[in-house]
Amino acid sequence: MQYADASEKLGHYRQQIAELRGKMRELQQSVEPEEVSDYEFSTTEGKLRLSELFADKEYLLVIHNIGAGCRYCTLWARRFQRDPPAHRKSRCLCRRLT
């Protein structure tokens, strides 16, 4: 296959992918929120309910950190340490769960 032919075919595939991504975004945005139960977690400090994790915030960001052995987990941790205080204040970045 010639370069020009392959390039044209790849362009067509990229367009199809972009269209599918658009459909996926539309579908994700159409999903109605669902109520979840007030799950109880075990923490290093005792039991804690899901609702308590939010504190006074509207959003809760949860990251499953498997420890220092995972470069992606430590990447998240370092990133949030550098975030501006105003950004951290708008979300509840809470304690470690076991």
Helical residue percent band = 40-55%
How many beta-strand runs?
A: 2
Rg calc: 21 Å
The overall pLDDT, averaged over residues, is: 79
Structural class: mainly alpha
List low-pLDDT spans. none
The largest beta-sheet arranges its strands as: 1-2
Gap from first CA to last CA? 55 Å
Structure description:
The protein has 98 residues and is mainly alpha-helical. It has 2 domains: 1-34; 35-98, no CATH class. It is built from 4 helices and 2 strands. It has helices at 3-30, 50-53, 71-82, 85-89; strands at 40-43, 46-49. A two-stranded antiparallel sheet has the order 1-2. A hairpin with a 2-residue loop joins strand 1 (40-43) and strand 2 (46-49). The protein is elongated and about 65 Å long.
Write the layout of secondary structure elements.
Elements: H1 3-30, E1 40-43, E2 46-49, H2 50-53, H3 71-82, H4 85-89
Antiparallel strand pairs: 1-2
Task: Please tag this protein with its features.
two-stranded antiparallel ribbon, elongated, 2 strands, 8% strand, 98 residues, single chain, mainly alpha
Brief synopsis:
The protein is mostly helical. It contains 4 helices and 2 strands; from the N terminus they run αββααα. The mean pLDDT is 79.
